[in-house]
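4.2 Preliminary Data

To establish feasibility before requesting continued support, the project team ran the inverse folding procedure on a target of 196 residues. The structure was first converted into the token representation described in Section 3, and no sequence information of any kind was made available to the design step. The complete token record follows.
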């Protein structure tokens, strides 16, 4: 099964919310075939829960992260994931500096969404997530500029609840864009018609 690792700094604010939003967005599209989504922090507050404001902001958007337990990103963790989604360029750059072999699968959330949106839409049937990731990296290496001035999601640590709500909205929107780029739109439920 494909696995996705979401990375921020402390693994208590942004990445727990993004993990929840991305998992939910992928499950809406792929059901039981959705990839496993986990998160970690480059300076993870090992064993801590998500910040209460993150829990509340995510819950208000329909995602429960109250059981989250923070973990520190350790060597090899990024390499064991098929895709690493970072909250800021500094996280992507730190991972690729220490584990250059994984660079082709490491993106910021916004970078990945923009790259995927440049690819042909996902066709009908079961999407090949690994091929989509490879195609996004190929496009990046071919020089697609994206928007390097808007790659980071602001760290809300120490900010009021309304800032967490704003970040949760941003993460939810970008996570949904990534999920659509990887797996296509949310399937339209089929309705059964009564027999005539």
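Position-by-position output of the design step:
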């Amino acid at each position: 099964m494909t696995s996705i690792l979401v990375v921020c700094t402390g693994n208590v604010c942004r990445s727990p919310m993004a993990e929840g939003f991305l998992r939910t967005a992928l499950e809406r599209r792929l059901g039981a075939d959705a990839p496993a989504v986990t998160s970690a922090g480059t300076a993870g507050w090992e064993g801590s829960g998500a910040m209460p404001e993150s829990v509340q902001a995510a819950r208000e958007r329909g995602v429960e992260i109250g059981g989250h337990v923070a973990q520190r990103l350790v060597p090899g963790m990024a390499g064991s994931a098929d895709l690493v989604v970072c909250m800021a360029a500094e996280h992507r750059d730190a991972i690729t500096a220490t584990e250059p072999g994984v660079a082709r699968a490491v993106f910021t959330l916004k970078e990945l969404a923009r790259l995927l949106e440049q690819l042909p839409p996902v066709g009908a049937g079961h999407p090949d997530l690994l091929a989509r990731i490879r195609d996004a990296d190929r496009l990046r290496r071919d020089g697609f500029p994206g928007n390097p001035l808007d790659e980071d999601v602001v760290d809300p640590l120490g900010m009021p609840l309304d800032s967490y709500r704003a970040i949760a909205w941003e993460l939810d929107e970008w996570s949904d864009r990534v999920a659509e780029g990887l797996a296509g739109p949310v399937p339209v439920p089929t309705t059964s018609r009564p027999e005539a």
